[in-house]
Amino acid sequence: xxxxxxxxxxxxxxxxxxxxxxxxxxxxxxxxxxxxxxxxxxxxxxxxxxxxxxxxxxxxxxxxxxxxxxxxxxxxxxxxxxxxxxxxxxxxxxxxxxxxxxxxxxxxxxxxxxxxxxxxxxxxxxxxxxxxxxxxxxxxxxxxxxxxxxxxxxxxxxxxxxxxxxxxxxxxxxxxxxxxxxxxxxxxxxxxxxxxxxxxxxxxxxxxxxxxxxxxxxxxxxxxxxxxxxxxxxxxxxxxxxxxxxxxxxxxxxxxxxxxxxxxxxxxxxxxxxxxxxxxxxxxxxxxxxxxxxxxxxxxxxxxxxxxxxxxxxxxxxxxxxxxxxxxxxxxxxxxxxxxxxxxxxxxxxxxxxxxxxxxxxxxxxxxxxxxxxxxxxxxxxxxxxxxxxxxxxxxxxxxxxxxxxxxxxxxxxxxxxxxxxxxxxx
Length: 427
What we know:
Low-confidence stretches: none
Number of domains: 1
Radius of gyration: 21 Å
Strand content: under 5%
Oligomer: single chain
Order of helices and strands: HHEEHHHHHHHHHHHHHHHH
Number of helices: 18
Structural class: mainly alpha
């Protein structure tokens, strides 16, 4: 199968790069994990992220095991390791109390993401901005191209089904039966994650624009971020992008962040025409873009299907949460509880209020540090993770790893600057 050929080509490239240049190899791993087809063996599928991780881990341990040093001051990522321990304890208690199965897959998944944050911060020591751009840019342009093909070429359904279908990603199965893509799915196998990535990408590049960071094709990257959100017909992107723009205006007015680039005022002149053209083309393709745009008039209506206590898809989980509010019930859902559509519900359900506090303490304390030097991009990373969390469980997902690592890296830069200033003052 073509997908398997592409999979192994990317795996070989990754293996060579890891031994040649560890930092570039780690970057390639994250990029490939988000764009590579899955490996298909009969009825079994395995993602590039899972298949390649232990190779990456072994090479990192051999070449520079100091990446995983834990006992250093002010490393906020250590809070995530504590969260992982709480998750394990909650899951084991659920086995005793409810007879749940031990969620080994969830254990490995969280461990993998925490390790990736450690690895990526190691890469970001030199230049956090350059590193996160090297990760997001190729994923962004590949998904723009893939989404356009999906919407304009109906015959592509079989190809992308073979590339990205997994039993845990049922949307592609529905598309195959339909015979065409009614919205963009990108390389994620679901429009939900494509919309999430659109918003994450927009937040990063808009932050760079506000801070006047030098990076190539900045207008193209901002516009591409908006376009893939529209192609995905994503409520997350459609509501989230204007929310970020409004929030930036408010924070700038209050003096929380400083807009260093006056060209930001020209963005509407570029964005609005591109937005209108994209919407018009999607209407001609017969998509439901007009219906999704209606959520701009009533954004809170988008939460009804997820958070309504009577008819929402999470309605059956609330009794479990209220009965186990302190520590949650671990990684195995009880009975018919559904927890897959919300970061907040997922955290409280699995680790309770304790887990929620530990997770957000890492993000909030890091953000407070970043605000001391008005790091607009780092602040937007925090904001966008909070926003996208309403629509997808991205708390510890590879799609959010670059932003988490960037936040922590920038806050550690602040700490180092404060330490140097303190040392110089003593001298």
